[in-house]
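To: structure desk
From: M.T.
Subject: fold request, one chain
Message: Could you run this one when you get a chance? Sequence is below, nothing fancy, just the single chain.
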Amino acid sequence: EIFNAGTALDVRDHSCYYSNELVSNNDFTDNTLNTIGTSTTTWTRYKAGTSSASISDGVATLSIDGSNSNVVIHQADIFESGKKYKISLVAKASANFSIIFRESQGALANNTPSTAIIATVPLTTEYQTFEYTFTATGDQGDIFIGRNAGDAAGANQTVTIDSVSVKKIQTTGYWRNEG
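Reply: Done. C-alpha cells follow.
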C-alpha cells in the first residue's frame, strides 16, 4: 500500500494527473455560438437541412431533424496526436438517442473534415454523466459533438448538453491525491 499523510491511497484512482480544462466555455455559460469558421475559444455550429444548434441558459441544444441528422458543435485545436485524454459529458435527449464524439483527422482533398469516432454516447431522457478515455490519432486536434452526415437518421430529437470536459491525462512523473 502507498500512504500519503497517513491515508492509504488506491493506485488505480490516483496514478495520473489531469491537465487543466482544455475546452473553452465547457459549461455553456457564454451564449456565443459561431455559425461559420473555427475557433479555439468558442463553440462553432455545423449543420445541414433544418437541424440546428444553440447555446443559452447554460446548455447547448441540438435540434436534430430525423431526415437529415447532420448537426454538431465543434471546437478547434483541443487534441494533440499520440496524447491520452479524458472526456466527460453531461447530457440528455428528448427520447433515447445516441450522439457521437469525434476527433478531426485533418481535411480531405475537397477541404471536408475527416473525422474518427471517439465514442458513441447513448443518451436517455434524464441527464447522465458519460466518461471516456482515448488516445488522439488525428493531426488537426478538433472535437465534434453531435450527429454527422452519414450517421443513421431517425426520429426528430432534441439533445441538451449541460457540460463537456476534456483533460489531458499525464501518467508519468506525477502523483496527486486529488485524482
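Reply (cont.): The first strand starts at residue 2 and ends at 4. Let me know if you need anything else for the meeting.
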